[in-house]
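Extended Data, panel c. Modelled sequence:
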Amino acid sequence: MPTRWADNDHYGHVNNVTYYSYFDTAVNAWLIHATGTDIRELPAIGVVAQTSCKFVGSLSFPDQLRVGLRIARLGRSSITYDLAIFREDGDVLELAATGTFVHVYVDDVTRKPVEIPAVIRTAAQVLVVAAD
């Protein structure tokens, strides 16, 4: 994932709120790729219920990033992702941030919680890790 010119703030580094955009992009891009489905067309949508980020290192345009993700919890209607953002430096990955991202699945009309769609649950099971 590339950083963008607009990601930098007045201080010359990627603004803190942009990390949440990287999380959102990584999770949804993975969902689309892993399911082979346009997730926007499902009768249930994942809304972000909670996020957190721990900043470890600084990023700046034009850094190239790699975002890793795993699933810490796969519930009935929610998925908790653990993420890590790394800056690529040649063959070396430098940790820049870690975080969590929780999707709660809701009916696309009523916005009431529903079970995770089967196509998403099947894909997500591959990334579930045992608790540390």
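The mean pLDDT is 94. This feature is highlighted in the accompanying rendering.
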